[in-house]
């Protein structure tokens, strides 16, 4: 049986723009853009993981809404690992400035979906950003 890893991401919007983060150079997939999110810990509900990951990566407090998409693929490094990702709509519970975790991300941008697609996003992020909020 192939081992599995579960990831969660959040699509957060402000005035029609979606929050995207750029991975720190020197990290896995450094320089690529993504939605805020990360790994679901053992025994952790996915929605709780999404809220935790957004807080850790951006300093934002959010509540999780509907599911935007569910995706699966084999690990891109060639390991025998199936990755599952769920993307949720998320809503800020209070307005705040984005404060990045510099160990993970070096930039952020609020972009309209038409602008975001020019970043060369991975397929699951591209579909999630392109789907109307």
From TrEMBL:
<comment type="similarity">
    <text>Belongs to the Nudix hydrolase family.</text>
</comment>
<dbReference type="InterPro" id="IPR000086">
    <property type="entry name" value="NUDIX_hydrolase_dom"/>
</dbReference>
<dbReference type="InterPro" id="IPR020084">
    <property type="entry name" value="NUDIX_hydrolase_CS"/>
</dbReference>
<feature type="domain" description="Nudix hydrolase">
    <location>
        <begin position="3"/>
        <end position="133"/>
    </location>
</feature>
<keyword id="KW-0378">Hydrolase</keyword>
<dbReference type="InterPro" id="IPR015797">
    <property type="entry name" value="NUDIX_hydrolase-like_dom_sf"/>
</dbReference>
<dbReference type="Pfam" id="PF00293">
    <property type="entry name" value="NUDIX"/>
</dbReference>
<dbReference type="InterPro" id="IPR020476">
    <property type="entry name" value="Nudix_hydrolase"/>
</dbReference>
<dbReference type="GO" id="GO:0016787">
    <property type="term" value="F:hydrolase activity"/>
</dbReference>
<protein>
    <submittedName>
        <fullName>NUDIX hydrolase</fullName>
    </submittedName>
</protein>
